[in-house]
Structure formats: structure tokens, C-alpha cells
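User: Fold both of these, please.

Assistant: Here is the first one.
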Amino acid sequence: MKTDNSHNTWLLEQLKDTDFAANFLNAASEDEDPATYLLALRKIVDARGGIAIVSEKTALSRETLYRTLSKRGNPTIKTLSTILKATGLKIAVAAS
């Protein structure tokens, strides 16, 4: 499947905005597949400097970040919270 580079470029630019990124993640959380949320978070990481920068901010290895933010990732709440904090976001709970 070919990726539309102009859409990807646009999305990465939009994800630099904290409110847009938060809404993007909240929308991803509505999907029943947890991989959707992790892939959305990976897009935010990419938009905010990439794996190398977030690795430095979190003291998590690049390998850990790649594995955590993959379709098969299964992060702990601590790891997830650390990644979100490094991207300027945090976990919140809302009534459904």
C-alpha cells in the first residue's frame, strides 16, 4: 500500500500542535484495537522529533520505543505515561 506523502507531511505538521495531538490520540482510543492507539502515538513521536529525541527525553532505549510503539506493543502504564510526558501530553480519564 502506497502512503500519500502529502497527507503524511500535513499530519506530522498538525501533530506538533498539542491540542490536535490530544484529539488525535483520543480519537484513536475509540478504536477497539489497542494497536491503533500505539500507532497514533508513534505518529506523534515522529512529529515531535522522532524516536531518537524521545528516547533521550525518556531515558528509554530506541529499541524499547520501537517495540512499544509497534502494532504488537504492550506498554506498561509507566512507559506509556513517560512517552506521553515527553511529547507534551498526559493520560486523562473521561466519562464515556
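And the second sequence with its predicted structure:
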Amino acid sequence: MQTFIMLTRLAPEAARSPQALEQLERKAMERVRKDCPDVQWLESYAILGPCDYLDIFQAKDVETASRVSTLIRTFGHARTEIWAATDWKRFKEIIRGL
């Protein structure tokens, strides 16, 4: 499984109340679990800055990560970025071979 970082910024009209945010999150995650059952969600953070959320998940490939990103965009009227991430220990193993 590969690790992916997803940054999400919701459109202002996506949720007008804290309760609406929770409903949006619940519906989006139900859909991700249904359509991408092999995805393992590791962490989610609300963040300050140009994005609203940072999520860390594992997926078998970039195609699956793209599906997750697309689902999140459609539910939250959001903009997302997906970054592939390599664990630091694994990265050091890779560069030792250079």
C-alpha cells in the first residue's frame, strides 16, 4: 500500500454550520468506504492556512487515490491536492542505493 496526503479546501457554500460539516464528512466517508473499500484512512486534521483539512490514507495505487480525491471533491464542492508520501525510514533505504 502506498501512503497519500490529501489537502482539501471546501467551497464556502459547502457547509453553512458545524452540524452541516459533520454530515458532509459522514456522507463523504461512507461513499469512500463503499467505492474504495481497500483504502485505509490513517489520520485527519483540521488545519489553518489555505486548506481546511489534511488527510493521510493508504491506497494500493495512484488510481485509487484519485478516486478518493474525486469523491471528496464532489461531496464538499472542494478543491483537493493529492501527494504521494514515502515513509522516512523507507526513503533512507532508497537513497542508500544511489
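The domain at 2-96 is CATH 3.30.70.1060 (Alpha-Beta Plaits).
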